[in-house]
């Protein structure tokens, strides 16, 4: 039996840097919210068997309304931090042997083909896979306001999502991380957690369209790409 592919779409964060009055995942873009666009991309990839959307408890009813045309989607309450949300999602997966894709709803324009590329690399045996793109800017390491050094950017990559993993190994890494009194680092993404756990991480080609919508200028760029005028009013959903 082939492994199922399960996508966890992280939509529980507040996304305050975007400046909206509602959580970032529910901000509209061309008449469709970021989370809806991310869910659509997962479906269109034709490799995802199940989609779990991670939401804050106070946004669940709104999320169900936004995604009412996706009856196959399951909703799981996220935690206070991104890592907590992912751990909650992993525990909600019923499968023991599967491929799991971890995706940020804010990367709403991610091409379905890139999703397939990540999933297929895990299905072929890689325990951890991340999509990456070259770094265009010169990067400085700093301490306070002083430059420490300038890494060679030819070996640097910007990491995108979805990131793909063997479910059993990602669960094991999370268990060790959350049971540790002091893991010694903060997991900023799931690949860093797997690196810490001792798992090799494979890189595949990312896509510029998979940029993360974090700030107002990112939203403006996304609106330009999708040929839609910038929304100026954000409404808080009624409870």
From TrEMBL:
The record marks 17, 24 as: Transition state stabilizer. It catalyses: 2-C-methyl-D-erythritol 4-phosphate + CTP + H(+) = 4-CDP-2-C-methyl-D-erythritol + diphosphate. Its EC number is 2.7.7.60. Pfam families: IspD. The record marks 153, 212 as: Positions MEP for the nucleophilic attack. The keyword Nucleotidyltransferase applies. It comes from the Bacteria. Keywords: Isoprene biosynthesis, Nucleotidyltransferase, Transferase. SUPFAM superfamilies: Nucleotide-diphospho-sugar transferases. Pathway: Isoprenoid biosynthesis; isopentenyl diphosphate biosynthesis via DXP pathway; isopentenyl diphosphate from 1-deoxy-D-xylulose 5-phosphate: step 2/6. GO terms for molecular function: 2-C-methyl-D-erythritol 4-phosphate cytidylyltransferase activity. NCBIfam families: ispD (TIGR00453). Belongs to the IspD/TarI cytidylyltransferase family. IspD subfamily. HAMAP family: IspD. Catalyzes the formation of 4-diphosphocytidyl-2-C-methyl-D-erythritol from CTP and 2-C-methyl-D-erythritol 4-phosphate (MEP). This is 2-C-methyl-D-erythritol 4-phosphate cytidylyltransferase. It comes from Corynebacterium breve. The gene is ispD.
């Amino acid at each position: 039996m082939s492994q199922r592919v399960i996508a966890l779409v992280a939509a529980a964060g507040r996304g305050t840097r975007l400046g909206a009055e509602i959580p970032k995942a529910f901000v509209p873009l061309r008449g469709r919210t970021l989370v809806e666009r991310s869910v659509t991309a997962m479906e269109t990839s034709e490799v995802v068997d199940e989609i779990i959307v991670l939401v804050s408890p106070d946004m669940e009813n709104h999320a169900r309304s936004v995604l009412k045309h996706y009856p196959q989607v399951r909703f799981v309450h996220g935690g206070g931090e991104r890592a907590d949300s992912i751990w909650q999602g992993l525990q909600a997966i019923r499968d023991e042997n599967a491929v799991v894709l971890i995706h940020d709803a804010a990367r709403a324009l991610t091409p379905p083909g890139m999703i397939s590329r990540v999933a297929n690399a895990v299905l072929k045996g890689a325990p951890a896979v991340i999509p990456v793109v070259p770094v265009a800017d010169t990067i400085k390491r700093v301490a306070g306001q002083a430059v420490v050094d300038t890494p060679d950017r030819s070996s640097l990559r910007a990491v995108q999502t979805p990131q793909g993993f063997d479910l059993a190994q990602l669960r094991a890494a999370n268990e060790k991380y959350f049971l540790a009194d002091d893991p010694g680092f903060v997991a900023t993404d799931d690949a860093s957690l797997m690196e810490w756990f001792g798992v090799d991480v494979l890189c595949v080609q990312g896509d510029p369209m998979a940029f993360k919508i974090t700030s107002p200028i990112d939203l403006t760029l996304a609106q330009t790409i999708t040929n839609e005028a910038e929304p100026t009013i954000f409404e808080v959903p009624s409870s």
